[in-house]
Known about the structure:
single chain, about 350 residues, alpha+beta, 434 Repressor (Amino-terminal Domain), 2 domains, 14 helices, elongated, disordered C terminus
Amino acid sequence: MAAAERGGRTSGRGTGSAAGRPGGRTAAGAGPAGATGAAPAGAAVPSIAGAVVSDQAKARRRGELREFLMSRRARVSPAEAGLPAGGRRRTPGLRREEVAVLAGVGASWYQWLEQGRDISVSPQVLDSVARVLRLDNTERRHLYVLAGLNPPAMEAAAAGEDMCEGLQRLIDTWMPYPAHIMDPYWNNIRYNDASALVLGMRPEADNNCLVMFFTDPIYRARSTSWERNAPQVVAQYRAACSERPHDDGFEEVVARARRESDEFAALWERQDIAPSGVMNKELDNPLVGPLLFESTSLRVPARPDLTLTLHTPREGTDTAEKLQWLTSPEGRRGTMYPVAG
């Protein structure tokens, strides 16, 4: 823990050169005697207005930090924090000194934090404060931002489990277009009827979309864009791995894909990485012929562990009309378990 977090106050004095102070002299050798203070042509000139705006934004953020911490502290009763109730309190919630003790930080340091002073802050100490104040993941991320740190990754809240049913209704309303939901490892957890009819998603297929892409025979036979998309799929999975570098779940998926597909192993060795987003897919359906899609992957803010993948018919094609027929009673009668894509 930094000295300032143990209660020591950081110095407000800077170590800048004299040239950075009003009236200060330029550094030796900056120019010949008698030279003016004008900047050379093409040199960047500091913006005083920009500095003022930056200072105002920082002051506003510190004010919001003060109000936020005070409001969260007032919500937590001594009993909830594991403290004896004691006598009557003038204000609800915990005292500053109690928060400091429970978080393992100096009382003065926490007071300065709540006052919005410019002090040294570490993620570990903010996490301790967040624990004492019983902040949820969204509040914890907000605390990081107000304290001037990069917020941690979003986590799925326990209440978010109920969202799976709502997401199922969402992909069902996407009919007759394919849509499915993946977990962080690209395990397929929900899909609509169009995904089963068009993309070949079925109980006996591999549950992992990455492994299925490389090993499912229906996928390989019907996806006419497979060779073009394979490098992009692997690069996107490496990007997903990089978001959780110490997660063994990704290593297990990669190891299985390497065992079952030499093509995946070769592409993985290229070390390519790319963000997920829109991918063009072309499928050759045995009943209706070519189907052309834009596949879009979307994150769900309330469930950051889930990715929603929506397939939209490409503009200027007859894919939408073909999908209407494939998902109709007549089309279903002629459909077994067709293509993956």
